[in-house]
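Before relying on records like the one below, remember that each one covers exactly one chain. Contacts with other chains, cofactors or solvent are not represented anywhere in the record.
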Amino acid sequence: MLVAGCDDSRRTTVAHMALDDFSPWRNDSYALSSSQIRGNLEHLLSQDAETTTADLRTKDYYRNGQPLVWVSRQGVDQRADTLLAELHRRITDMGFTERSFRVPQIESDLERMRSLDFDSAANSASRVAARLEYNLTKAYLRYVTGQRFGFTNPVRLLNRLDARETDSLGRPLGYRNLFDVDMEHPGKYYEYAALRKVRNDSLTQYLAEVLPKDKVYLEMEERLATADGQQRTRLLVNMDRRRWREHNPVGSAAKYVVVNVPAYHLWGVSPDSIIDMRAACGAQKTKTPLLTSKITHMEVNPQWLIPQSIIQNDIARHAGDSAYFARHRYFVADRKSGQRIDPRHVSRSQLASGSYRVGQEGGAGNALGRIIFRFPNNFSVFLHDTSSPGVFQRDDRGVSHGCVRVQRPFDLARFLFNEMPDDWTLDKMRITMGMKPETEQGQQYVSKLQPGETPQLIRWQKVEPRVPLYITYYTLFPIPGGTLTVYPDVYGYDKVLAEALATYRQ
């Protein structure tokens, strides 16, 4: 049939007409064939300047000569109405406009097909059929791709945000990676798989499958109905963050640690307990990257191997000043051999060149504090203690070079043990971290130390099993065990996502 609507009241009196029935009509405006539809599709492709992932996949599909999806010799069937009904039901509630999914144009062209309202100009039968074919596919792929993977791509947006350096004309020569989360993305052939759902009459089922079912998302969507202004924008961008499909999302493990950068806060969650503490994260120029990993071990009284960027910007100018290096407990070592070098014999250019590395001895006063929590990542960032605990009294705690400083490192260390350690094990860690022991055995041990002696009862502690870590970015965040809480957009990522979502709000 040409069109079969879901609503009987809208069925056409020519319901049993197929494309072949147009052939006896001599008026060219009624002429309809697959070759004519293909020719008009080529014109539509060349005129469409929109570049979302779904739009590009739509163009690729037709440029590769793939089968028509919605228009056939049986006409346009109820699948078009099924898609329109879904868009009518969902799009406004998602905060988007139907126009951004071509709904008005699709409805107009469906009505022309139903009423055979063709003419010899822009609305010939072949042009109407081509527009329906193209716009239905475009709307469908925009919708299912967005619902399934998110309407924004954080890898593309956030990893082209901060330039590492620029040329003489101010053009970026490279960008800092800010997002390294293990995510699902629409694969190279996703559009073929999604469009097969339409051709195989699995459309209704697939439209239900791609819907976000996350409770936090649904709560945000409910709030969106009465939100406006900045609150509405905040909801829209955080809803899209919930659409992003992570391979191992927050909360999928029984025990995990999560840092929400805008909150400057850390939570440790296990089946029987939740710990939380303040955190300090990267400054604007040295943002803490967003990532997922697993904490592998803890190192007590670690040395700090200072990043080359800090050496170049802060330390190299003190080359030859042995008092400066002694005051900060810095040492210099040949990068190849590891042999330590007298700071008096190293020039500024040698330090800046990277031939020598600079480190800080572990213990009291070390910038990493008394303990560091290590996990594999591509940024050389970690969770660690700090020698400047006053930072946790500030509201704006964007102060680091990218690492995350934690307010109560001993509590985090205790949380990471697979089973609650005995009192003496905990005291050994306290003593090594410079804290007061709580057991009689620990107090006796400390009483026998020589003045200035630094004990090393625990230097390294494996975390087994490894504990998942999520460093994330939500300005509307579900506090573990609590409710959604609003946080400031400290890095401006909400603005970046809102601009990307503008395509769907116009």
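The mean pLDDT is 91.
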